[in-house]
Write a structure and sequence with these properties.
mainly beta; 2 domains; about 170 residues; 15 strands; Immunoglobulin-like; five-stranded antiparallel sheet
């Protein structure tokens, strides 16, 4: 929330704990994301879809709703925020998850998975535009191929960012 509160809104309550590990966000608003036809900001006090850059790091945020019933192309990032290679992300969709694809030309697509509700959350999507060091894979694992980048790790200060589809 804009006042610093962290709220549990929905989901399972079978345990008496909630993990907030791994959550990160920008404290600056960023720039408005260009939404595709049929997609609109969700409203109701939720963050308008935005992107923020900090050096090579790109962070997406916000909630958008599907007003057309068509999935697929949902938004477009400017070239300055597009990844070097196409990327795949796992995103929240209420009790399910969905796949979000971002292509090297900046197009953002709903790729597969849950679409029970007419919205997509972009929170948690972050990547480096130009990852640096190729990871050595073991145990038969290898990069997925097909236009997706090789597994990489990039260190910035004391943080390490992985980018991989294996």
């Amino acid at each position: 929330m804009t006042d610093g509160r962290i709220l549990w809104v929905t989901g399972g309550k079978t345990h008496d704990w909630l993990s907030i590990s791994g959550i990160s966000f920008s404290i600056k608003r960023g720039k408005l994301l260009k939404l595709s036809s049929g997609w609109k900001p969700y409203g109701g006090g939720y963050q308008t879809p935005r992107y923020r850059t900090s050096g090579d790091l790109v962070v997406l945020s916000g909630l958008m709703r599907n007003s057309s019933g068509k999935w697929g192309h949902v938004a477009t990032l400017p070239k300055s925020a597009a990844p070097k290679d196409s990327l795949v992300f796992n995103i929240n969709h209420h009790e399910g998850t969905a796949r979000l694809n971002i292509t090297k030309d900046g197009k953002v697509y709903w790729g597969a998975g849950a679409k029970k509700y007419a919205w997509i959350s972009l929170d948690g999507v972050k990547y480096l535009r130009n990852p640096k060091t190729r990871l050595k894979t073991i145990g038969g694992w290898k990069g997925y191929g097909g236009g997706y980048p090789e597994p990489t790790a990039t260190r910035i200060g004391d943080m390490v960012y992985l980018s991989v589809v294996i």
